[in-house]
Design goal:
203 residues, alpha+beta, 4 strands
Length: 203
């Protein structure tokens, strides 16, 4: 069976990014029962955007990883083309902590630099199978990830272990002035480390 989640750049035809950002948690007021029912409706309607918000809200509430993985698989099978790019393709135990750390920072005045996160695979060497790379670039995060994987000014950790861009936590940290982005990159990396996340980059 083809894995619909295998694309590295996560560029999805028809994916919607124009509505509510995941950090705003638009489904926060719903009960778990309501979220599960709404998710089933999203599957029926092949609505990747609404299904993604259902999964995200359950994820932020600490839903079991097995349940998140199952929901992700179901959504990819039902609505791959409309899943927004901010939804990760696999369960990450510390994702809520990454959002919490990112919320400490603001974009400030507009510029051309972007702070980004890349999920790293440490399943061969660490108890926690995932780490994260924190970077800053004038390129969009997806483009910079492709450059890393192609060996263009690549960080070794991303070249060897990079899995995907974690778009959601840093959506509000795009289009920053360069100096502010450089400070944010460093401080954000430290905020993630303080939350027990294994971090590369951030300098």
């Amino acid at each position: 069976m083809t894995d619909l989640r295998s694309t590295s750049t996560r560029q999805r035809k028809g994916a919607s990014n124009a509505c509510a950002a995941p950090a705003s948690r638009p489904l926060l007021a719903l009960s778990r029962t309501q979220l599960v029912a709404r998710f089933q409706q999203a599957l029926t309607k092949r609505d990747g955007y609404d299904g993604a918000h259902c999964i995200h809200e359950l994820w932020m509430r600490g839903e079991m990883g097995m349940q998140i993985e199952r929901a992700l698989n179901e959504l990819w099978q039902a609505a791959a083309e409309s899943i927004p790019e901010w939804l990760p393709t696999r369960h990450i135990e510390w994702l809520a902590a990454a959002y919490e750390a990112a919320a400490l920072f603001e974009r400030g005045r507009r510029g051309r630099s972007n702070v980004y996160l890349i999920l790293l695979d440490y399943s061969d060497s660490r108890a926690d199978p995932f780490g994260v790379y924190v970077g800053m670039s004038g390129y969009p995060p997806a483009t910079r990830f492709e450059q890393h994987k192609a060996g263009v000014r690549a960080a070794g950790s991303v070249l060897k272990r990079g899995l995907e861009v974690l778009t959601g936590p840093t959506l509000h940290l795009q289009g920053m002035q360069r100096a502010a982005a450089a400070r944010c990159e460093e401080q954000f990396a430290e905020a993630l480390r303080l939350r027990g996340i294994f971090v590369q980059g951030g300098h």
